[in-house]
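::Amino acid chain::
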Amino acid sequence: MDRKHGSKMVAPIIITVILVLYYIGFFVICAFMPMPVVLKLLFGLIPLLLAGVCIFVLMERIKEIRSGEEDDLSNY
């Protein structure tokens, strides 16, 4: 990874880490709240799925940056 691409990847990585930590924290809080198991699963799985989507989108963004497709809007 060269310096040019590395600097463009910093912001997406930081934002993804913050969001994933938030979603995991929400999952942990839901796991310890007194509520029926069905609600725990519902309220717990949704944030974990969102964390997975965030990680997937980050991987796609890193691929775009490395391939040189940073400015997608200029194609239209």
Notes: The radius of gyration is 17 Å. Residues 9 and 62 are 7 Å apart (CA to CA).
